[in-house]
Amino acid sequence: MPYFLYREPSTPNEPLGFCHHSSLETLGASASNCELCGLIHSSVSRFVTSYHKAEGDPVFSYYEDKSGLGFPSNFQLWLTERFNGGDGFFVFVRGVSERSIFLVATVGFCVEDGMPWCVWS
Questions:
Q1: What separation in angstroms does the CA of 96 have from each of 30, 86, 100?
Q2: What are the pLDDT digits (tens) for 5-60?
Q3: To 5 degrees, how large is the angle CA 46–CA 95–CA 28?
């Protein structure tokens, strides 16, 4: 379960990137009409399931308590460019702590050589 901790607490109103959906409910509603939202929703759902499963592990629970990670209470989704400069984006959500953010989805774009969308042909 990828997450990042800031050295200093971030400001809760400080954007992490491009504001996407404000909750799991709005993402789910949009996923029925938008394939990209459906892809993100699928990944976020796996994150939620994995996090709840991990909460049953005593080691994870201990670390969660000590570090203040905490399951996100507000699923405001933020889109950012990928760190490696690849085509696509990351989707983040803030944790309960002002120091933590979780990577809940990664989307990459690719095309085969010779396809009309390929800029290197």
A1: 25, 29, 7
A2: 655 656 667 788 889 999 899 999 999 999 999 999 999 999 999 888 888 888 88
A3: 40
Report if pTM > 0.70: yes
Q: From CA 84, how far away is CA 81, in angstroms rounded?
A: 9
Torsion of CA 35, 38, 42, 45, to 10 degrees: 170
Higher pLDDT, 3 or 57: 57
Domain boundaries in the chain? 3-108
Q: Cα 66 from chain centroid?
A: 22
Asked if residue 54 lies in contact with residue 1, where contact means CB atoms within 8 angstroms, the answer is: yes
Phi, psi of 82 (to 5 degrees): -70, 145
* 8 Å CB contact between 57 and 42: no
In the chain, what is the straight-line distance between the N-terminal and C-terminal CA atoms, in Å? 37
